[in-house]
Design a protein that fits this description.
Largest sheet: 10 strands, mixed
Distance between the termini: 4 Å
Helix content: 10-25%
Number of helices: 6
Low-confidence stretches: 245-277
Strand content: 15-25%
């Protein structure tokens, strides 16, 4: 593909004909699509649900040497990530029966910031978002013009890589405060200031806004860990995103990390395929 590459992992047991729901998952800074395909916690849950995994590759900015994403506030300015993601989905849809009404977006660390970026500015093609350990970067958007969707965010209380309060990066850039990021979405989506539900279970402390004024829904979950995904996050996230607790709008059918860096084209294991064109 022009401007980048991505990898795919088909769900085990797919019959080759049924329409495939999908998760587009953005890796963390310095990681790769190949590392995403090796996330056992994610792959097992997607196999259970019969979902396709789409793993884009970040680009290496000139002079930096590690993969990154060009979201708002990022030091990287290598491509239009929203347009690239659209192109990836178009390429996948030419090769596989993609269920365009059930395409979700997720990410870890800087990849999580990509999920926030798309949820704010380009949510229309997607059914929902799951974010792990990363939110907006400064300057934060004042408003999110994209149509509201469902978003669930997980963050470790002892995360020092992407602290809940944010931190400066290299003197010129800054990861934003996760709570302030949440406030931007609440305000943009018309959510009340107080959550409708608060739960403590399974090591997660979650606050939920199930029916925001403009139609979206938010869930914000904290855990005791650091810069990592909490145990059981994938089932928790996708159960909520596809649950009937909220009536968030979905796009009509037809709409448009801590792992070592590896070559995604080496990830051709049973049930997986890499695409670089």
């Amino acid at each position: 593909m022009e401007n980048g590459t991505y990898a795919l992992a088909l769900p085990k047991g797919w019959d080759g004909r049924a329409a495939l729901p999908a998760l587009v998952f953005f890796h963390g800074y310095g990681s790769s699509a190949g590392a995403t395909l090796r996330r056992d916690d994610l792959r097992a849950e997607l196999d259970r649900r019969g979902w396709l995994l789409i793993a884009p590759n970040g680009l290496v900015p000139p002079g930096r040497g590690r993969t990154s994403w060009s979201h708002e506030g990022s030091p990287s300015r290598t491509r239009d990530e929203a347009a690239f993601t659209h192109a990836v989905l178009g390429d996948v849809a030419e090769r596989l029966p993609l269920d365009r009404g059930r395409v979700f977006v997720g990410g870890f660390s800087q990849g999580s910031s990509m999920a926030w970026h798309l949820a704010c500015l380009d949510a229309a093609p997607y059914a929902g978002f799951v974010a792990l350990s990363g939110a907006f970067w400064d300057p934060m958007p004042e408003d999110c013009p994209a149509p509201p969707r469902r978003l669930v965010h997980f963050h470790g209380l002892t995360d020092h890589t992407v602290p809940l309060e944010g931190r400066p990066i290299g003197g010129r850039f800054r990861q934003s405060d996760a709570f302030a990021s949440l406030a931007v979405l609440r305000r943009s989506w018309g959510c009340p200031s107080m959550p409708d539900g608060m739960t403590v279970a399974g090591g997660l402390r979650c606050r939920t806004w199930p029916a925001c004024g403009r139609g979206g829904a938010l869930r914000f979950c904290l855990h005791d860990g650091g810069h990592e995904a909490p145990k059981g996050w994938a089932k928790e996230a996708f159960d909520w995103l596809e649950g009937d607790q909220v009536d968030a709008p979905r796009p009509p059918h037809g709409d448009k990390d801590p792992h070592p860096q590896t070559d995604p084209t080496a990830a051709r294991t049973p049930g997986a395929a890499a695409r670089a064109r």
